Amino acid sequence: MTTDLAIYDMDRTVTRYATYTPFLLHCALHRAPWRLLLIPFAILSMLAYVGKLIDRGRLKEINHRLLLGHNRHPSELQPLVDSFATKVLAHNIRPGAHDAIGRDKAEGRRVVMATASYRFYAREIAERLGFDDCIGTNSILGLDERVHAKIDGENCYGPAKLRMIRDWLATSGLEHGHVRFYSDHASDAPVFEWADEPVAVNPHDRLKKLAAERGWQIEDWD
Length: 222
Fold this sequence. Notes:
alpha/beta, 8 strands, 50% helix, 8-stranded mixed sheet, Rossmann fold, globular, 10 helices
């Protein structure tokens, strides 16, 4: 039996603003405020990324280590994840996202989040919004059962996001039918091209142009 899917990017699609750096700042502020003194080093890492000295995955690992620490036990992270998810749902969800999720679920679609953000906190946001599944960037869980500042596998971004969606489908044993995909950013072009119904949500200029060229639907969720 085939299952129709609705797949959503998270940052700046479901949410108005990105969540990764705010999550790390939230953790530093509530657990170890002294780590805020390391923000200049985080800015240097961002400049290294802009200068193409490091990739996005390495940027995430560096900032994770600076603001959250080398490793943390899940029991330490969960209160931070819970409080951050509460904050995101209260102040950082596009109104149209709620409407789209409700519509897709009413149509019988399996609703899936696919995000470049770390899955260990994105999953909590997804569950509270009513998503059935969450695909995201995974952190290594060591033999010490602690979450490390190291990506497990690929950063769920660009072409890697499509590979991770396909891997998830293969692992879950799902035979998908019609796929509707929502995102705000042109980096998701591989998934847009793969989906049956691409929807550009509050797109930035590059995606707006691409959507117009391809005839993709454009929606404003604000």
